[in-house]
Fold this protein.
Amino acid sequence: MTAHAQPILSARGLTMEFRGFAAVKNVTLNVQEGTIHALIGPNGAGKTTVFNLLTKFLTPTRGEITFRGDTITKMAPAEVARLGLVRSFQISAVFPHLTVLDNVRVALQRPSGLATQFWRSSKTLAGLDARAHELIDAVNLSTYAHLPAVELSYGRKRALEIATTLALDPAMLLLDEPMAGMGHEDIGRVSDLIRRIAKDRTVLMVEHNLNVVADLCDRVTVLARGEILAEGTYDEVSQNPAVREAYMGSEHE
């Protein structure tokens, strides 16, 4: 993917203190448009806190966050979602007893202005079907469109969650450990999905599976003790002695 000169998402001097403890310290991060960027690090590195700051579930003690050049530091999650910066579970993830199609139709009601109009006619809601089927096809769930979500495998449920998120047509998608709890087959399926949806949008992901990071990501930022330890391609950061020490060799054996 071709990175542009102007980052789509930037953080400058990002600091988060909890009762005097600095969980994140002076983090500066640039995510280039059109890339898949990973945020990695050992347990306790501050990845989740940084992710929550960037997605506006937390407000930083100090620092600034910009999206497409606009300051979003003090915005609410719903506000930044309307700008096109969407975290995967900002939409109600999955209604287990609704079909795959109905789950995506519900998600589409929000940008269509129907979100608070629950008693719309079937004809009105059927108008969403074409786009719903496009999204379902995009995540390879067409075969399961009329199956209740509860009957999907875990990996396919995650794919459905991504489809409901894509209903907001985000410019940038933020994924928090998308491969967590998955078996090998599901990991491969969801990796392929992320690669496809990233063709026309930016993705930032927190991920523990370094094989996935190596396979998918254009850029990797490594955190340790709340600070950026290294940044570069996966090959570059994996050869960095400081990164190896932070992981104590466990991820590189």
Observations:
- The chain has ten helices and ten strands.
- Confidence is low (pLDDT under 50) at residues 112-119.
- Residues 14 and 63 are 4 Å apart (CA to CA).
- The beta strands are 7-18, 21-32, 36-40, 62-67, 70-71, 85-87, 172-176, 202-206, 219-224, 227-232.
